[in-house]
Amino acid sequence: MRKTMLTVAAACMVAVTGLSAKEISKEGHQPIGTEIANVDISSFCMAIVEGDYVTVKRMIELGEDVNRKSLGMTPAMFAARYNKVDILELLIEKGADLNIRSNNGFSVKKYAELSNAVDALVILDTALGS
């Protein structure tokens, strides 16, 4: 009975206070990508994050800009960060500029490195001639 009351009380406190799972580092910065679902990301970049190759290809065919930033990152940065190699190759084939920097000053290769996206790094090394 006591456990049930404590559980119900805790659940009510969470509901009333609006406790969120938002994570903040000791330096006061939010880790990259912890709240991607709660931000205004373009549908094109969301399709990349989800790995939906068919949708990404179709959107490019319909005129989507392969270099237009969303959340300060290019589509290639999203593909590299989430190790979506087939999509990254498609973006490169369709003219993605791999030399653009994000609003944070990172390159597409840096996002792959930070995410330990080994397969994307291989593609980027080949494309960048590294």
UniProtKB/TrEMBL annotation:
Renumbered ranges of ANK repeats: 71-103
Protein name (database record): Ankyrin repeat domain-containing protein
Species assigned in the record: Pricia mediterranea
Keywords (A to Z) from UniProt: ANK repeat, Signal
Signal sequence range: 1-21
